[in-house]
Amino acid sequence: MIDAYLIPAVNGLAYGLLLFTVAAGLTLIFGVADVLNLAHGTVYVAGGYVAVSVSDGTWAGLGLGVLAGAAAGLVSGAVLWAALTPLSGRGHLTQALLTFGIALAGGALLEKAFGADELRPVLPAALDGSVDLAGHRFPTYRLLFIAVAAVLAVAGWLVITRTRVGARVRAVVDDRDMVAALGVDPRVVLAAVLAVGGALAGVAGALGAPILGPGPSTAPQTLLLSLIVVVVGGLGSIGGAFLAAIAVGQVQSLGVVLLPSVSPYLLFAAMAVALLVRGWRGRGVTA
Amino acid sequence: MIPTRLRTPLGIAAAVVAVAALLLLPTVADNYTLITVSRVAGLGLLAASTALMTGVAGLPTLGQIAPYAVGAYTAAHLAHLALPGLVQLLGAAAAAAVFSLATGAAVVQTRGVICLMVTLAIGELTAITAGQWTSLTGGTDGMPRVPATPALPGGENLVKVPDVYTYTVVAALAVLAVTMLVLRSPAGTLIRGCRDNEARMRASGHRVSLTLLWTFTGAGAIAGAGGALLVSSQRTVSPSNVGFEVAALVLLAVVIGGAASIPGALAGVAAVVAVRDTIAPKLPGEAPLLLGVLFIAAVYLLPGGLSGVAARLGLHNGEAGA
Amino acid sequence: MRTRVRTLVAVTTAALVGVTATACTGGDEGGSGDVTIGFVASLSGTYQTVGEDMRDGFQLYLDTHGGKFGGRTVDLRVADEGDGPATATPAAERLVQQDEVDALAGIVGGGSYAAIAALAQENELPLVGANGRPDLPDNSWLWHTSYISDEPGIAIAPYVKDNVDGPVYAIGPDYQGGHDELRGFVDTYTQLGGVLANPDGETKWTPFPQTTDFLPYLNEIAMTGAKAVYCFYAGKAAVDFVKQYAQSDAADIPLYGAFLTEGAVLAAQGDAAEGIRNVLNYSPDLDNPANRTFVAEWSAKFPRQPTTFAMASYDAAAVLDRAIATIPEDQEVTSAAINDAISGLGVIDSPRGTWQFNPTTHSPIQRWYLRQVAKDGEMLSNMLIEDLATVGN
Question: Is Membrane given among the entry's keywords (chain B) (predicted)?
Answer without folding.
Answer: yes
